[in-house]
Every structure is written in structure tokens, then in C-alpha cells.
Amino acid sequence: MSTFSTAPKRTLHTLDIFFLVVAAAAPLAAVAGNGALGVLLGNGVGMPGSYLIAGLVLILFAVGFVRMSPHIQHSGAFYAYVRHGLGPYAGGAAAFVAIVVYGMMVVGSAAGFGFFANVFFAENLHVDLSWVVWAALALAVVALIGYREITLGARLLAVFLTLEVLILVVLTISVFSPGSPAHVTYTSFSPSTIFSGSFGVGLMFAFVSFLGFESAAIYSEEAREGHKTVSRALIAAVIFIAVFYAIAMWSVIVAFGDDKVVAAAGENPGTLVFRAFGQYTYPVFTVAVEFLMVTSALAATIALHNAASRYLFSLGREGMLPGMLGNLHPRLQSPHIASVVVTVITSLLVALFAIGGADPLMTVLSSTFGLAALGIILLQAATSVSVCVFTWRTSKEPGSTLNLLIAILASAGLVAAAVLIIINYSTLTGSLGFLDYAPWLIPIAAVIGMIVARGSKQTGKMAAVG
């Protein structure tokens, strides 16, 4: 039998959570996808600067997040913070929005794995299987890992993430090496360049590239030193992602040249990074980066599945969803039932897309991550506002004025990012017909969350905490 509502084992170190968080952001896919689109549709050569600006806003957000974290040791992450600052109904809304967006990201990431696996194995090994078969394989692997203890997934992600980083380091070194034909300029970091073109669109793609970093707090109950471990991992992850993305994207721009990179992206933004590898590295590295796009998608699917499972586990434990979701495996101490439910739901959604003949990249991945981008940014903004309220309430503590200013700046930046995504939603996802109405799932989920919070037997407890 399963054990009900016992705390998970504290097995995760700072590096474990760091790998879980950065893997969810999928660095290679983010640079190859969002970065290239930012160059084409956004501020062109200034895209690396956009990464630094988004990173600065998210570092401010992380500071407030960390400031509040000693008071929130909870697998619910966003909703626990929102609940603590803004009350139980806001917390319920945040919880159900989080379930929707993380579930959608699992679906999109599995489809992305299916697409990249189909391309890689068909071109290099002449194994031509449908993306649906590859996506099903990914979901099976993720289900197995998600069912077991979290450290297994963290170790696997450490390997995948290290390879992703190393392959981009290879490109960077090749482009900037003394014998390289590339002409190195620093235009990408000039304010006049960063704020040129469609700066708002470029900044939107930069923010989207950070999706998943906030999941660090989900693992607070499984961290060795609780909030201390989470805080270190979160700050390290944000700084690493911002700096690494900026340098990697800069190397791609320098590879083509400031005056040619936008036109190169216009030919096919999805292959921009691959073409840079083709020009500046040996062919084996081009094959390697294509393979690592596959493993990057798998790593992201594992990390996002783990995050979604822990949201369901947390809500089941608090009575906002069926109690069995709050059970832990008696031996592995993993949220095994929540993990199985995530697997079943995401598998059904992938199957529905497949039956409808959807394109894995342009329809499934685009629609799910577009929805997730909007939902995550709104949740981050709500969490940041919650930090503002919390800091105001604890204004007698040392340093509270500076902390409040930081939280206000982070909130303003995140609200601006949310507005950018809403205004440019069709640019982010493309025209998808019926799926253009997917953003309505966010307010619907929020209303359901408030209704459940109101009717939950835990409402009194939640109100007391908030």
C-alpha cells in the first residue's frame, strides 16, 4: 500500500536541482529555436542583449522569491507563494493555471522530441518512424523515470545538460578562436542595437527561453537543506541561463556576420544554429548537435513531467484534488500516482493531436509552449506581486525597503513581459486556427481553481497561511 501524505525524502543537492531547472529550459532548443526567431522577428543582432535584460528581470524576481522561500517549504511552488501573499482564492487560481501550463509543456516537449528524433534517425540512420512513435517512446521513458525517485531523473538530466552546454561551447570556441574567419564585433550589446527593430518581440522570445527556471521551488521538500538548497540552485540557474544564452547567441550572430545574420535566419530560422556548426566545426559536430536536439527535448520532457507531477501531488495532499494524488510510493518515496496521472493525460493529448494530423513542431509544440509562455509569465508576475505584499507586511524586518523596491521592479518587468506576449501571441505561435483560442484555458483554469479553493476543506487552512 502507498503511504498517504508523508513528506518526500530529502535527497536533492543544489546541483541536482540546478540540472532539473536548466534542463527544463532546454538551452540548446532555446538558442536554436527562440534565439533564431528573436533574430528574425525581433531586434536582430541585439538578441543577445535581450537575453541579458530578461535575465536581469528574472534575477530580481529570484531575489524576492528567495527572500520569501524560508516561509514556504512546499511542493506547490507558485501557488504556495501566491496563496501566502494574496490569499487562498488567488492561490487556487494559480494552482490550476500551473497544472494546465506544465501539462501542456510536457505534451509540446514530447512532440518536439518526436519531430527531432524523426529527422535525426531518418537522415543519419535511415530509420524513418513517425513522430508519434518517437513521442510515445519518450513518454514511456519519462513515465518510468517519473515513477521512480527523483535522483534518477536528476542524474540523467545532468548528463544530457552537460552535453548540450559542451556542444554550444564548441561552437563558441570555433567562432571566436584566433584562426576563425569570423569578424568579432560587440554590436549585440550596444543599447542602440538592443532597442532597435521589434525590441518587444525579441524580449518576448528571450523571456520564453527561460521557461522552467522557476520550477526550483517545486523541489523544496526534496532538497537536502530545504529553502537554502533551492535558493542557491535558483539564483545559479538564472545567472547561468542568461549569460550562457547571450554568449551562445552572440557566437551564432558573429558566425554569420552582423549584416547577414537576419537574412540567414530568414532562409530558415530553425536551421540557423545547425548552419553555423556546418560552417565553423567538423561535420561530426553538426551530427552531434542534431542528436543533442533530440536529447534536449527528452531532458525537458523529464524535467517538466516531474514538475507537473509535484503540482498534482501537492494539490492532492491538500484536498484540492483527489487525495490519492497526495500518496507517496512506500519504498521510492516518489509521487508515483501523480506521475502516472500526468503520463495518462499527456499521452491522451498527444494521441488527440496525432489523430487530428497535427504537425509536431508548427502546431503541437507551437500551441502548447505559446500557451505555457503566457501562463508562466502571468504566474511569475502574480508570484512577484505576492512577494511585494509579503515584503510590505514584514516591513519591520531589516532591508525590507530595498527588498520591496526589488520586488516592485521585478513585478513591473514581468507584467510588461506578459503584455508583450499577449500583444504578440500570434507571432509567438503562428496562426493555428481553432488553437488560437487556447489562451482562454488560462482564465478558465483560474476560475476553476478559485471555485475548488472555495469548496475545499482546506480553505480555512489556506486562509490562515495566507
Automatic annotation (TrEMBL):
InterPro entries xrefs: AA/rel_permease1 (IPR002293), APC_superfamily (IPR050367)
Alphabetized Pfam families for the sequence: AA_permease_2 (PF13520)
Localisation per UniProt entry: Cell membrane
Keyword vocabulary terms for this entry: Cell membrane, Membrane, Transmembrane, Transmembrane helix
Molecular function via GO: transmembrane transporter activity
Mode of membrane association: Multi-pass membrane protein
Any one Gene Ontology cellular component term annotated for this protein: plasma membrane
TM region(s), chain numbering: 12-37, 49-68, 89-117, 129-147, 154-174, 194-213, 234-256, 280-304, 337-357, 369-392, 404-425, 437-453
Annotated protein name in UniProt: Amino acid permease
UniProt source species: Rhizobium lusitanum
Lineage of origin: Bacteria, Pseudomonadati, Pseudomonadota, Alphaproteobacteria, Hyphomicrobiales
